[in-house]
Write a structure and sequence with these properties.
The protein is α/β, with parallel strands linked by helices and about 300 residues long. The chain is about 35% helix and about 25% strand.
């Protein structure tokens, strides 16, 4: 058995508004908000690393869980925007937390990595106890304003989650993960390059695949989409979230949204959203669905139920 124990987050202090982005892209600030739901995003300052953001999110999560770092048995670190090929940031995060023998795994799965981390943690918690999942991204260094349709979407930030074998506010019931490598070239970041995204392809596949994954997972446990009380999704685009809600025939109000304030922070976005959602919903009133879609294409869903 595995439980969601806590979430945490960290956002850089520098705010970049649509007016700021408009000056670099030539796009109208109001049009950016209408197309994406984004009003502003955060950019990390020069010299700040993916690791720096991840450490801050991890510390916030540990504090909220009231758990000392030395009780973590495994670290999973998701990032698609790290500064080097290897080693990934997971080992350095462990060292920053004072952990010198705890195993770590890096998950370079843009956008969907934090969901994959939670699903893996649910399977591994029986062996490792408390598992810390961190997702940290500095997407502002991966974009180019020569591709304004992509550049307007992204921001920087980090999120964290602790999955525990023994206790938490919600029990993880099940998960479903999928990958279709036929679309791998539609969302990619080459070494030393800038983010390449075929936006229409991503949206088209995401609007088909996310609702199906959610509905199938819920149906497996005798639930309809309407039975879920809370939906936490990767914050890719407000229009995508709305399309998923429509496809599932679920009120949009059940979907937590904070993309307006932070933009698309890739794999960090699900955990940042979950952290803010849980702060406002300490006692969830029904099943919780987490879902994401990202590079690979990889996508899936996690189902959890509140602990009485």
């Amino acid at each position: 058995m595995a439980f969601l124990r806590a979430f945490g987050a960290y956002l850089p202090p520098d705010i970049v508004t649509n007016v700021d982005v408009a000056a670099s892209t030539g796009k109208d600030a109001a049009a950016i908000e209408r197309a994406t739901g984004i009003r502003e995003r955060r950019y990390a300052a020069n010299g700040v690393t993916v690791l720096d953001l991840g450490v801050a999110a991890a510390q916030d999560c540990l504090a909220k869980a009231k758990l000392p770092a030395d009780e973590i048995g495994l670290i999973l670190f998701s990032s698609g925007s790290t500064e080097r090929s290897f080693p990934g940031p997971a080992s350095s995060l462990a060292a920053k937390l004072g952990l010198t023998t705890v195993p770590v795994i890096d998950l370079p799965i843009a956008s969907a990595g934090s969901l994959v981390g939670i699903a893996l943690a649910a399977e591994l918690a029986l062996r490792y106890g408390n598992i810390l999942i961190v997702a940290s991204e500095i997407m502002s260094r991966c974009i180019t304003f020569e591709d304004p349709d992509t550049a307007i979407l992204f921001g920087d930030g980090a999120g964290a989650c602790i999955v525990s074998r023994d206790s938490g506010f919600a029990r993880i019931v099940d998960h479903a993960l999928h990958t279709d490598g036929n679309y791998a070239e539609s969302l990619s970041l080459a070494h030393g390059g800038t983010l390449h995204m075929v936006g229409l392809e991503v949206i088209l596949q995401a609007t088909r695949k996310i609702p199906r994954a959610i509905a199938d997972l819920l149906s497996k446990h005798g639930l309809t989409p309407g039975a879920a009380a809370h939906y936490l999704m990767h914050q890719a685009n407000l229009n995508l979230i709305r399309k998923v809600a429509i496809a599932l025939k679920v009120p949009e109000e059940k979907f937590f949204v904070n993309i307006d304030a932070y933009g698309n922070t890739s794999s960090a976005s699900l955990l940042i959203a979950a952290a803010e959602w849980h702060t406002a919903n300490q006692n969830p009133n029904g099943p919780i669905v987490l879902a994401a879609f990202g590079a690979g294409f990889s996508w899936g869903a996690v189902l959890a139920v509140p602990v009485p």
